[in-house]
Fold:
Amino acid sequence: MKRYKPAKVPVLLTMVFVAALFYVLYRALGYLDEYIPFSAKYLQLSAEIAGAVVCVVLLPIYYFNTFYTVSSKVVTARTGIIVTAKQLMPVSSVKSVTVIQVPFGNILGYNFVILNAQGTNLIIPFILKKDAKEIADIVNNAIRNRSSSEKTEKEAP
Structure:
């Protein structure tokens, strides 16, 4: 059983994006100062605090709480900040594996592995390219072994 973590670069880029978004909100609220002089400062302060909490507290906690484990029998995904979710998918129910690799996926880590089963799927996001390939190989080997054993069982009288 091997354990995988999401890539660090997407988390850092998300932090930068969220910080930029809250900065734009802060600046936009500054224009309200002409119309609502007293309240605009409190709204700006609220935007600063919310941005800091999201970037400094919530995103790092989400990153540290997220991990994926893969074995030849089961794939597990655990995510969440306050309320954690644990998803289990037996490899025996996986019908196909899809690996989505983006340009510069080696550097950015914006690669995804999608395990498709009948009626559901398990998405493993923001994984390094080598980890995505390794997960796909483990699950594909388990699928091949399962299908070859099913063929031999059907051929035997």
About this structure: The chain has a mean pLDDT of 87.
